[in-house]
Amino acid sequence: MQTTVRRLGPGDEEVVRRLAEREPQTALLSDDRTIFLAAFQNDDPVGFVFGYELPRRHGDASILFIYELDVDEAFQRRGVATRLMTELARTAKTRGIAEAFVLTEPDNTAANALYESVGGTSSEVVMWDYRYADS
Questions:
Q1: Model confidence over 5-58: pLDDT tens digits?
Q2: What is the pTM of this model?
Q3: How far is CA 119 from CA 29, 36, 89, 100, 116, in A?
Q4: DSSP of 55-91, one letter per residue?
């Protein structure tokens, strides 16, 4: 099976809708600091990864926050996620981004195995969530 991976941008709103479980925020396609990659089998999107280039106040000018990665269940364990992460790393490097991070749950065995296999290093962190709206 040969999948292709490409960066999404303005004009790819329908692709984002096809990948979404709820009504998506397609305006992010116009934001140059958002890197949204999709994997395709023929013309069908089968997975995606996206992240945000975050400016920093010290050190490197920016860091990549890998926000979400998902592959259609029928295409899992076929190298699609690895391909998406590899292409994301290549895209980040060409943009001068030297570092990235991703968050996942400690018991998400598949995600942790993937992130380790593509060169990630696990770290112990504490994350605090805040909700600023009632809805």
A1: 999 999 999 999 999 989 999 999 999 999 999 999 999 999 999 999 999 999
A2: 0.91
A3: 27, 20, 10, 11, 5
A4: E-SSSSSEEEEEEEEEE-GGGTTTTHHHHHHHHHHHH
Rg (C-alpha) for the chain, rounded Å, is 15
Is 7 in contact with 35 (CB distance < 8 Å)?
Answer: yes
Going by the DSSP 8-state scheme, the letter that residue 26 receives in this structure is G
Q: Pick the closest to residue 91 from 21, 8, 3, 28 (CA basis).
A: 8
- The residues spanned by each domain of the chain are 4-117
- Tell me how far apart the alpha carbons of residues 55 and 96 are, in angstroms, rounded to a whole number: 12
Which one-letter amino acid corresponds to residue 109? T
Contacts of residue 68, Cβ cutoff 8 Å, sequence gap at least 6: 48, 49, 50
Q: Which residue has the tokens 């195995």?
A: 113
Class of domain 4-117: alpha beta
